[in-house]
Amino acid sequence: xxxxxxxxxxxxxxxxxxxxxxxxxxxxxxxxxxxxxxxxxxxxxxxxxxxxxxxxxxxxxxxxxxxxxxxxxxxxxxxxxxxxxxxxxxxxxxxxxxxxxxxxxxxxxxxxxxxxxxxxxxxxxxxxxxxxxxxxxxxxxxxxxxxxxxxxxxxxxxxxxxxxxxxxxxxxxxxxxxxxxxxxxxxxxxxxxxxxxxxxxxxxxxxxxxxxxxxxxxxxxxxxxxxxxxxxxxxxxxxxxxxxxxxxxxxxxxxxxxxxxxxxxxxxxxxxxxxxxxxx
Length: 280
Hints:
With 280 residues, the chain is α/β, with parallel strands linked by helices. It has two domains: 4-174, HUPs (Rossmann fold, 3-Layer(aba) Sandwich); 187-273, Pantoate--beta-alanine Ligase, Chain: A,domain 2 (2-Layer Sandwich), CATH 3.30.1300. 37% of the residues lie in helices and 19% in strands. It has helices at 9-19, 36-47, 66-71, 76-85, 96-99, 118-121, 125-140, 152-164, 194-200, 202-207, 218-231, and strands at 4-6, 25-30, 51-56, 90-92, 144-148, 170-174, 236-244, 260-268, 271-278. A six-stranded parallel sheet has the order 1-4-3-2-5-6, with helices on both faces. Helix 8 links the parallel strand 5 and strand 6. The longest helix has 16 residues, at 125-140. The model has no long low-confidence stretch (mean pLDDT 96).
């Protein structure tokens, strides 16, 4: 069956109504500019025999910087060729006014965990993420939705939204996909040249040296990581924090029982890079 391309809410609903009674729906929300990280989510959905829906929508609400929105890489034709090649069942490509009609003023806001880590530096970013994801859940009514662990805070907040709002969708996470240098795949990586991409690979290599037994406390670990990153050319560091995987609470003393995870955000050539690593 050829890939269905829906560009309107009417087309989306008409095509979904044909399959809802017979198949479970798996949703992969994306902003396009697809890479192997997205493909890992799609493959997981297809492996589980879901009718696989991929959305391509560059969500303006999650950009607190207009220049960042303008620079975001868009490659719709290439994305569609990729999705058709791997036999995605349906691709939904809405226009902004379909998702946010004139006068739109209703937003989802989580108040306990959205103003830390990335949220501390990107005002209303996660409100934008949760709002569009919630709208996609309502429009598509998937049985499961797939998200990568690279955006761990985003994954955590989406799971919390689903629980808090009693949404009937299962969130399935997929491990971070990395390039040959260890850099976590991101659509923004396409804005870096080959030299910068290689340099950025140092982030993961340094994070992997985070061992509970090697550091007395998180302060010592953060100082070590910062020094190592700077020595490897990653000097514009936004934050390095150690938090618990299960609740994103700060960790002071390293203990495996806390499931500590190191989170980092840094800029390279003006491109924002994020990563996280579960400390063992």
